[in-house]
TrEMBL record:
InterPro entries: Haem_Oase-like_multi-hlx (IPR016084), Thiaminase-2/PQQC (IPR004305). Coiled coil: none annotated. Gene3D superfamilies: Heme oxygenase-like. The lineage of its organism: Bacteria, Pseudomonadati, Pseudomonadota, Alphaproteobacteria, Hyphomicrobiales. Residues 30-96 form the Thiaminase-2/PQQC domain. It holds the Pfam family TENA_THI-4. This is Thiaminase-2/PQQC domain-containing protein.
Amino acid sequence: MTCDANARALRLRTGSKDWCGSTSCGASLFVRRLGAGTLPAATIRAYLVLDCLFLMQLARAYALAAYKSRTVADIRAAQLALAAILDATELHVRLRGRGGPSRRILRPSTR
């Protein structure tokens, strides 16, 4: 969907007047350069490390959601999300051969 189509859809659903003016509509420079293959490798590596760290925190949040769930259906939903997040984290680590994050960032911090 283009920015204009997204903006129209949001206006129809929420009555918002200026979606594109209030968000970064369209692809960011990072995404455009990544798609074009012109993003520096160091930038990609830094992104992968940060994203891996974010995914670890998100996984912990879903694990907590499963723990606090009151129904089996809610536990299962949290477990499915957690499994997908852990798969994405593993993908980041497998990219290590191409400059991705190492497994050492998955170890608990001593700080």
